[in-house]
Amino acid sequence: MVAKKGVDIKKQTKSAHSSQGKKNRAAGRRFEAKVRENLEEMGWIVNKWMNNIDYEKNKIVPAKRKYNPFLKALSIGTGFPDFVCFKKDETGRYEVIGLEVKSNGYLDQSEKGMCLWLIENKIFSRILIAKKNMKGRKIEIEYIDFSEKYNSKQQNTEQ
Question: How many domains does the chain have?
Fold first, then answer.
């Protein structure tokens, strides 16, 4: 990397990381909007989930906003999972699911723990992970059931 006059190389890479982060966050927001639109077309009522889990109190608490003290709120809806979705089934009951939107489809260890807690405490009947699949230039959304993907792996490691 060639440094400009009077500009430190570290500052250039920091600036590059900052702009890449902005692009990634914008792409994530666009994908979330696309997933939400797709679910609404399938008949689901979709709402932003604004809560997190407090393990010490063993209950759900409102999610805190992420702030930059010099500018403004960075993001408002930082709850886990991203969306709560409900839909009336044939019997007249509502199915309530959680939906986490991930471009790569993978959850980290803390997210897996939160999903297990939400299912064990019967907050959601199931949790789906929305994954981005590229077919050429077209983005297709794949929905993966958390229990099918991760519980089978955990049962194999316990044995």
Answer: 1
